[in-house]
Amino acid sequence: MPQYPGRIVVIGAGPVGLCLSLALAQADVKVCLVEALGDDNFLEQVPRAGTNHPATLEMLDRLGLYQKLEPRGIVAPVFHYWDRHEGKLIAAFDHIHLKDDTRFPYVLQCERIKIVEEALKMAKAHPNIDLRLSTEFTAFAQDADGVVARLKNPAGGEETIDGRYLVSGEGARSIVRKDLGIAFEGFTYDDRTLNVEVAYDFRRHGYAERNYISDPAEWSNLFHWKGPPDRWRVHFPTDPHADEIELMRPQALQARLQGFLPTGKPFDIVGSNLYVVHQRVAAKFRAGRAILAGDAAHVNSPIGAMGMNSGIHDAINLADKLIAIARQQADDSVLDRYERQRRHVAVAHTQAQTIRNKRLLAEKDPAVRRRNHDELRRTADDPVLARKFLLRTALFDSLREADAIA
Ligand SMILES: Cc1cc2nc3c(=O)[nH]c(=O)nc-3n(C[C@H](O)[C@H](O)[C@H](O)COP(=O)(O)OP(=O)(O)OC[C@H]3O[C@@H](n4cnc5c(N)ncnc54)[C@H](O)[C@@H]3O)c2cc1C
C-alpha cells in the first residue's frame, strides 16, 4: 500500500484555492498548490469579481489579507437600486444597519485580480505551501488512503504529486468534476453580458459605488473600482443573436454608454469584454478524497456579487474541516457535512438569490415592476426590514443556516 504524505493537493490559485491554501498552511497543514498560470501571465486575467461582502471581509481578515486589500479598494457602505426607465433612485441600502452584526458594516470594492495578487505573495512566502506555478493539472487517481495528481510541469514534462486529499479550485471547467462524472446541474442564459470599463465619475449623477439598475429594455449594473485611473464597470445584457465583433466595436460601445447616460462627449473606455452567464451547481461536492470548491462546484450570475464570496466561504468551511481531520479531531465524515452545508447554500441562497436579482432588474410587466420597487423602498426605509434584507444580501443568513446543518 502506498504511503501518502499528509499534505493537501489544491488545484487552482484563484481566490478559492489561495484562501484555502493560506487557511490550511496557517494551521500547520502542508499544501501543494498547483496553478497553470505563471509569474509572466498571472496578472493578465480578465476582470471578474470584485465586491467583497462583510462576511467575506471577516474571513479575509482572519487570513491576514484584509489589511493588504483595504488600501487597494473602495470602502462602500451604501448601494442603490435605480429605475432607469423613470430615471429615478428607487432605494438606497446602508450597511450601517449591520453595525451590531459585524466589524465590517460595508462592502469592499476590490477586484479579484488584486485579491489573488496579494494572496499569491503570501502563499509564496509561506513555508507550508509548495507552490507550483506554470504547472497544469491533467488527471488524478485516488484510493482509500490518498490521491495522486498528474501534472505537466513548466518544462512540459509529466510529473505526479501525492497527498491525503485533492481539492479542485480549478474554476468552472474543473477537470476533477468532469473526471468524476459529477453533473453540473442548472442552465445557461441565452444573452451574454457586456462589461464596459469607463474612466468617468458617475457619482456626479447621484450614483453610489454600487448600483443595480432595473429597466424593461436594458437593465444594467454600475460599479466603481479604485485606479489609477478610477474605473466604473457598466454591465448590459445583449441580444443572444448579435454578432460579437459588432457588439464590441468602439462605436457600438460608445452608443450603448450614451444610451445609458447621454453626456454628449465620448466616454474614456479603458476595457471591455463579453461573457456567458451560467446558473449551475454540481450534484455532489465530494467523491472520496476529491472535493470541489468555488466555481468548480457552483457558478452563477454576478448580479448580487455572490460567486467569489460564496467560493471563499466554501474555502474557509472546508479548511476548518481538513484542519480538524489533520489534527485527528474529526474523521473524514465531516467532509460530507461540508457538502451538505455548502451545497445547501449554493442552491437555496446563491442560485435562488442571483436568479431573483436578474428577474428583478429585467422585469417587463409594469404592475410587477411597480410592486417590486415599492417593496424595495419600504424595506430600505424601515431599519428593521433593511437589516433583515442586508443580512441576506451580505451572506450572513447563508452562513447561519449552514451552521445549523448537522
Ligand atoms: C464578469 C464577472 C464578474 C464577476 N463578479 C463577481 C462579483 O462581483 N462578486 C463575486 O463574488 N463573484 C463575481 N464573479 C464570479 C467570480 O469571478 C468567481 O466566482 C471566482 O473567481 C471563482 O473563484 P475560483 O477560485 O473558484 O475560480 P477561478 O477564479 O476561476 O480560479 C481558478 C484558477 O484555477 C486555475 N486552473 C484552472 N484549471 C487548471 C488546471 N488544469 N491546472 C492548474 N490550474 C488550473 C486557473 O488558472 C485559475 O487561476 C464574477 C464573474 C464574472 C465572469
Summed up:
The chain has helices at 15-26, 54-62, 66-69, 112-125, 175-179, 244-248, 250-260, 307-326, 334-362, 366-381, 383-393, 396-403, and strands at residues 8-11, 31-34, 51-52, 74-76, 78-83, 88-94, 107-109, 129-132, 136-142, 147-152, 158-163, 165-168, 184-188, 193-198, 210-214, 220-225, 231-237, 269-275, 278-282, 286-287, 290-292, 298-299.
Question: Care to describe what's here?
Answer:
The chain is of the alpha+beta class. The chain has a domain at 8-77 and 96-187 and 280-359: 3-Layer(bba) Sandwich (FAD/NAD(P)-binding domain). Helix content is 35%, strand content 26%. The longest helix is centred in the last third of the chain and has 29 residues, at 334-362. The chain binds flavin-adenine dinucleotide. Flavin-adenine dinucleotide (FAD) binds at residues 11-17, 34-37, 48-51, 112, 136-137, 169-171, 175, 195, 275, 294-295, 302, 305-309, 311.
What is the fold's blueprint, element by element?
Blueprint: E1 8-11, H1 15-26, E2 31-34, E3 51-52, H2 54-62, H3 66-69, E4 74-76, E5 78-83, E6 88-94, E7 107-109, H4 112-125, E8 129-132, E9 136-142, E10 147-152, E11 158-163, E12 165-168, H5 175-179, E13 184-188, E14 193-198, E15 210-214, E16 220-225, E17 231-237, H6 244-248, H7 250-260, E18 269-275, E19 278-282, E20 286-287, E21 290-292, E22 298-299, H8 307-326, H9 334-362, H10 366-381, H11 383-393, H12 396-403
Parallel strand pairs: 1-2, 1-12, 2-8, 5-15, 12-21
Antiparallel strand pairs: 3-7, 4-7, 5-6, 9-10, 10-11, 13-19, 14-17, 14-18, 15-16, 16-17, 19-22, 20-21
